[in-house]
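Let us work through a complete example step by step.
Step 1: write down the sequence.
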Amino acid sequence: MPSLGEDNIKRLAICSQQCVFEPLRQTFIEAQQRGEIRHTRPESLAGFFLSVMESIPFVITGSDAASGEVVVDEMISVLLDGLKPQVERD
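Step 2: predict the structure and record it as tokens.
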């Protein structure tokens, strides 16, 4: 990034905002409107989602690596269900 120069970094940030962040934010807004997810700031959800996706290469490599599909399923579950243990209902 530093080698891109200040003007190019600004242009890339604007493109990222418009092409990646904003569509994700809108997706979370629409899911909230449909009652599929609880109301949390959509900006926070989009940022969290992007951070999680960015970490996948680090999680699926190494000696204790799970398959990419397992990792993605776990991350989506944490995003949608949270970290609290699920309560089994009778």
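Step 3: interpret the result. The radius of gyration is 17 Å.
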